Records
---
Amino acid sequence: MVSVINTVDTSHEDMIHDAQMDYYGTRLATCSSDRTVKIFDVRNGGQILVADLRGHEGPVWQVAWAHPMYGNILASCSYDRKVIVWKEENGSWDKMYEYTGHESSVNSVCWGPYDFGLILACGSSDGAISLLTFTGEQQWDVKKISNAHTIGCNAVSWAPAVVPGSLVDQPSGQKPNYVKRFVSGGCDNLVKLWNTIASCSQDGRVFIWTCEDPTGNTWTPKLLHKFVDVVWHVSWSITGNILAVSGGDNKVTLWKESMDGQWACISDVSKGQGAVSSITDTQQSEQ
Amino acid sequence: MEKMSRVSTALGGGGGAVSGRTMFCHLDAPANAISVCRDASQVVVAGRNIFKIYALEDEQFVEKLNLRVGRKPSLNFSCADVMWHQMEENLLATAATNGAVVTWNLGKPSRNKQDQLFTEHKRTVNKVCFHPSEVYMLLSGSQDGFMKCFDLRKKESVSTFSGQSESVRDVQFSMKEYFTFAASFENGNVQLWDIRRPDRYERMFTAHNGPVFCCDWHPDDRGWLATGGRDKMVKVWDMSTTRAKEIHCVQTIASVARVKWRPERKWHLATCSMMVDHNIYVWDVRRPFIPFATFEEHKDVTTGIAWRHQHDPHFLLSGSKDSTLYQHMFKDASRPVDKANPEGLCFGLFGDLAFAAKESLISSDANRKPYPGGDRRYPIFFFKKPDLTEQFAHVSSALSVFETGLESGRMDWFSQTARLYLLSGKPFAELCDHNAKVAKELNRPQVSTTWTMVRIMFSDPANPNLSAKLGTLPLMNSFSMKDMGACPDMGACPDMGACPADRGKEGRSDAAHLEPGTSHISNNDDNEETEGSDGQAEYMFGDAELDDDDLYSVEHDNPAEDQEYTLPQEAFPLRHEILDNPSAPEPLQQDKAESPHVSGGEAEATCLTPIESCSLISASQPLYTAHLPAGFFCPVVRDMLRYYAEQGDVQMAVSVLIVLGERIRKEIDDLTQEHWYTSYIDLLQRFELWNVSNEVIKLSTCGAITCLNQTSTTLHVNCSNCKRPMSNRGWVCDRCHQCASVCAVCHHVVKGLFVWCQGCSHGGHLEHMMHWLKSSPHCPAGCGHLCEYT
């Protein structure tokens, strides 16, 4: 059902931790342990390396594209405790802002909905979440929520600004659903359209959270599937009706809600069949 | 020798001699350096105000001895470095900040264990180092630029090595060469000396930018030297060749104060930083980007690190400025890699999926491609010793872009549909028909059917023109009704691409007759028409038509032919037939009223025809909707729009909303509408369908949406003559009293499109300028500027 269009030679020297398409689906940003962020033009089935952003001193965990109404802006966060905002100007990418206010690895960045302006939420292992707001003229306003999570924050994501006239001053930063069972974390969530959140975690479960309550206080989880292996990533399709889930078992599965509200797997991809041998599994601890 | 054998027997139990757990104790003062005695049972901590020996017990540190004695200890006790002799277990050496090198003999009966005192250095001694196999040989390196070698049996140094007034930060005897030692300097150099030749270094090379704070020989006497500097790098040099060759480089996030190879692990080394960063990192030098393990216990800068036992890789001791002494268990270390997400996944705009994953995950051993630079993941060594740690080695990721084969997955239909839909500018029925056709051509039968149905439901029966058309696709109606009724529980529509196999039985049957639905309909149309009217000649497929059953089989077999069966709608004026069936409204109404259950209508349909799905005969009747008030359908249509929106097809919701306009608008609350509009506009903009997006904005009836078009519409214009801003008085500039927008080619005032050069601000009619610039690159105004039209 799903075919490979192409494999992208990223020339990253180490593991890739995140890949994000931009708003128009024409560019792909990848970030890797090798401290670089690379941007590819993926139009017409081919891919051209557009930029190789160097500036981080540690593995780069996540990248996020800002809404294009603010220009071509990319945020990246890294193990080196820094958040860097990159901006393209006249075809060249430069550092626009560097935030060094975290005391530990910054694990997640996410831009708020454009209605709120250029606002970036960063979640760090030091347990804090920072909100960086661009106030114009190269100025950024920093608001830090200390101890948002006592043992570190793994993911931040914004709810869409769907309700017109919602409190713009208090953007509803969607709190990451940190699962305390995983002290060193590994859950990851993404919020996309239609007041539904998909979350995944290292225990192999993927939940679909729906909120019937307009105030957003009660969220009902629904177990999508219990995978046998850890689940690293979930991503919604543009219309929000297909969920892609990637797991530690080398598979990407596509899920769709069927008529009776059940989620059904409609396709799965596994590139190298049966590739995972125990030798290659580096997730084992040493001792 | 005796001691050595003791140690090796102790280790015979598989490293069981050393046991313990992660633990710490508070020191009275910040530590500067630590050192472990040979049998790993005791550790000495030295600092400006501390000099103590702790015993390492299983559960805790126990203070054994305080070497800092006397009421007012002399500066000789202020230690910059300490080293426990690895052969003589009673012998310690310290480097004092006042330049003294002191040795201590723990075997002394008195409280003061000070043994020898060498005060030959002028400034702080940064480092002391015992020879690994020569008991009485001690080396020191000082800030004053000299290294001195002491024979502990003599009162003075035996030789002095000059670093040419560069401060010495570290000295280390080689494990491999008996006479060789390495010294690192503040200017970034590393020198190799022969202990027998104090006049000149054997070799020198520049290792770092800025001071080299530390160096460490690989314990497996490989001739590898690791150096760490203020430039935040750790470099591993191969010294066995004639020229020192950099073989690995690890970049850390802060200046490197100490580096120590991990015992029994060829590629691992531990580092700590001098400032900013309090963590201890253990790196695999083959994977220089991400630490293999980190110890994050210290609250202030870590000043000393030491592996507890030289053959045990599991225990690391560290002292810190925060006045604590820690023993770290390797299994308690945090592993940044475990937290790292090895996969990235992202849906593209067009339904393509980018997926990056660790190569080891996605390719099997057999088909793994070697990547440029050779396969470093599996050193030969690995096969001999399948140790889990080695798997940390090199990891790379592969990034692939997948295309979904699912109709619903691909988003081509979205942009196609957006482009081709007509939302205004024609009579309502025509819009619907057009859109239905568009949807059908894009192979989205349900959407197509919906459009037709909408048209039928809301058409004005009084309009003969419309009702003529209405007749053309009569059967759509009944199908759509059933379909509509079933919608809420129907879930995936066929064009949404769920595999039929996954679907419940009911769903399948629904879909099965839904999909061919549109096509039978037109066919049967033809049938009826041919029966009831004269048009045999117009009837293209007359030969093929036998009866309903046959029709079905044909169509199920050849869905591809669907298109051909569709005849131009205008060709069949069926109005008389419509009027022939007065009984028709009944089932329909029932249907509607009981929606979403299909019961009544379906029951009737089944009894009318043998085949469940082909309620064709009964279905030809519902044309009588004509005398139902249009508002009657509103709730159904509202539910339908909601359904589409929920399904992710907000396009359909908005399009129907716009086309129906006033007819439906009041049924749906403003917030929902606005939400749909904004979602759709956002989608259109993502697909860069600016024109469509603008049209939608224009046609929307929501205040909040239409005002989107009114933002940033101000245009600031400067006069092309005097270059001053134009006031808002129109075409004539206030200041120079000239018409500002005169075409440089024809000298008339330009109304409409005015194109001008951004360089010289001359311009004119678009076609004039294009024409001019084809023949000449110069500005038509004669200003000499080389204008460019792109």
---
Amino acid sequence: MTILRSREIIPKSSPKTLKSRIIEPPTPKQFHEDSKAISSPSSSPAQKPELDSVSVSGTGRRRSLRLASKFKVADEDVRKDSISGRRRERESESGEIGMNRNSEKDSSSDSDAENVDGKIGGNGIARVLDSREKKARVFSTVEERVSVSVEADMGIKVIEDGIGKAIMGLGESGLMVEEVRGLKETELVSIGDGENEEVKEKHGRNLGKLGLSSDSGSFRRRSERIMTASDAKGKRKLGIDLNSPSLDLEVDDGRDKGLLSLGSRVAKRRMQGIGVDSNGIEDHGGEDKESKGSLNDEIGEGVDVDKKERDPAADESSPVDGKRSYSSEEKGKGKLVKDSWLSIGIDPVKLDLEPEAEDLIEAAVSGLIQLLETVPLEEKKRHAEVTARIKASRRRQYKEMFQDTARQNASRFAHFHTEEEEDHPSSSETEREIPSVEADPEIEDWPGPFSTAMKIIKERAMNLNVLPKNLKSDVSKPAPLIEWMPSKDEDRNRSKPSVPSLQDLCLNILAKNAEAIASLEHVPDVLRHKLSQLLCDSRRMDSHFMSLLVNGAPTEIRINDCSWITEEQFTRIFKGCDLSNLMVLQLDLCGRCMPDDILPATLAHSPNSLPALSYLSLRGACRLSDIGLNALVASAPTIRSLNLSQCSFLTSTSIIILADSLGSVLRELYIDDCQNIDVMLILPALKKIEHLEVLSVTGIQTVCDDFVSDLITLHGPNMKELVLADCVIVSVNHVPLTTMDVFIGCRKLTNASLKVIAENCPGLYVLNLINLRKLTDSAIRYLANGCRKIHTLKLCRNTFSDEAIAAFLEASGESLKELSLNNVSKVGHNTAISLARCSRKLLSLDLSWCRNLTDEALGLIVDSCLSLRLLKLFGCTQQDFDKKLDKYHAVDRGLLVSPG
Amino acid sequence: MKKEDTVKLISEEGFEFVIHKNAAMVSQTIRNMLTSSGSFAETQHGVVTFPEIRTVILEKVCQYFYWSLQSASGNKTEFHIEPQLSMELMMAANYLHT
């Protein structure tokens, strides 16, 4: 790798982490090998020592290195911070990175439990664990303020993830780290062409700073540099505290070295990690990787240089590289340095700077204290090449994280496992270590169905996992593990091809000729609803049909999509209509036509004008304010179910008034995305609603634990449905319901809340864990042990491991009807086998973006899940599955496979 | 057609449609009527009356039965429905659960 940023790593006296393999940075950005030294002690899992912060000691050793160490330091911190913030995936991956420092970080690390090889406290090397593979967590020696996370790989990763955070997290000392992070980010960003904006933001600045502090001069300088570097990137949050005295300076030579080496390792790792991350982060695309790669490249270099190099580096880093860098990171410590720098945004071209990476890193991390655990230089070297690719964003992230975690866990990681990433079982062990390490006491193994299942899975995996590991290939394992051939047996046709029903045929014709319909008299409500739905779907709903619906004295008016109605039409249609029998009124997406003043003229013209109304849905009534709602409620005193989702004008006042008038009858209340409602303020009102059975507060950010616990305490026995998606809810206490839907989509939700839910809701049927990045396998464990009756489980972008999901399926997946593993990228052969064995009732399965599944695995699933009706495979690049599907006779079963 | 294989469907105007039992079984409602364990007249005589379904509609329904059988056995064609019949046909199909 030839990315060399003139980053000098200010050697700090980081005694423990100095492993000191000083990598001669091929480019000015090379991480100083010092960082390696620093990192070595800290990075136990040497896989990807993305030392966010390489403690840059001001020793001459660093000086000699071209890489500014500032980056490292920043990385660590950044990592930490970034971890908590940024990329979801990264976070999960690099969760550990550097986050250890702060307890908060820990949580983020926890989420990445698996990946955390062990947070290296303080001087630990943040290892960035590749989400794909077992991410190496980059522990940055957070303590040391800012150490440029030399580990390009790791750092970069971290950076991407928000190294800034990591560094920030470093807190006391870590301002620099933050800067480093920022630096990294900037670098990363620049490398990645701003791909990882968010991450980069954080990291960039840090990184930038790192880069800036290439000279091993004063710590201050470094931080400043880093700052500037990050500024380049712009928005990164630069947590660098320039004034923190210990910044950088603390990074002693040893640390710097370690960091550097770590950095290079990190870089490598980061590359890998980034690559991996990138892979994992499908949505991010390869950009991340590239950015990472570039970042890695840059790791060794100063910010200024980095920037330039970043872009090219970004190009080079590719997802594959990322992966490869991961492995190489594992192998070569030297590369780490490079990699970490690379991730900072070193051009991919420079990635070959591996041998120098370390040096670069060290050099680059000038002033950043990178706490790198004992990331062996060898690793770095290996990774260097790889990391080069990923570098860009990963580096940064990793750096930060690494720094943080390294700092915190340095002592714990006296050695690291180089094969961690490659070895799933080991990685899972590692991951498991991490939770324990991370002060996550709940992740203790206790006897239960999940543990049993896990053992089975592991044994299975171990037995099957006899293939030579191919680091570069991510399908090496599944392919031989599932030997399944499409059956040629015609008898496998299980059901006849379905014939459209006469009713459907007629509905379609009616929908096509809706304008010719003269009357909907005598048409049952069900059919009216279906017809109206068809029309809305095809955008052919018009006022003619709507007036048909409103004519007579309808009992139900359901219109899914009222976005086409103007106020005039609405008034015309509803004026003078007989709504005395109306029991159901659904006017979704009526924002355009429903300002407050229209209601008195139409629906709410008098109190009790809707005497029979029991279900009212005004989703998306964005112009409806408190006044309008009050008028409506006054005219419909018997409402039992009220859906006010996305009515963003509503405030807590309206809910309070609502509770006053409907307190005795209201059963269901949906106030999703009503951001102006503070749930704590309406808590008394909710308590006043005596029979509340369904409450949906999706997306409201003021939802918190207290709210839930208060609510559940009162309404628990009645609660049938509690929708808490995208909230900060963490725990749900004492909900002894038999049927309870709990949707939780909050990003900050951790295992603790899952534990509470699992313990208290044994009858849980539906669980939605979409986007909960912080959950780890422990959460799955709780679920498996506690919620045995789940029939709908939605996971998306979670970071559960293959084994965990497989074990869950074995333990509690018997009654599953609908399962979504969208973007749960680790899903692999274990899950496939478990699905085949245990999921007899499964009707709908979403395996989008699960690219670790081979064709054979998919075929096995299709053939074995006899009830399967819908299989979603978006983003799965398995080729020819459609063709094989025919052979599998899946379509004959009526199985709908989408896409295709 | 043997008598044992057929059922008779009587429309509102009194028209009688004699169709195969298999065809009639396409309708879940008729299937339940004919196979119920109780001693219903329908079961015993194989006759079902539909006082609410007009002849035209019932005829179309019977045509649909046969088309459905053919489709199930692979011979997929299009079943044409006159739009003016579609409303009533839809309601009849809803009632007949077909």
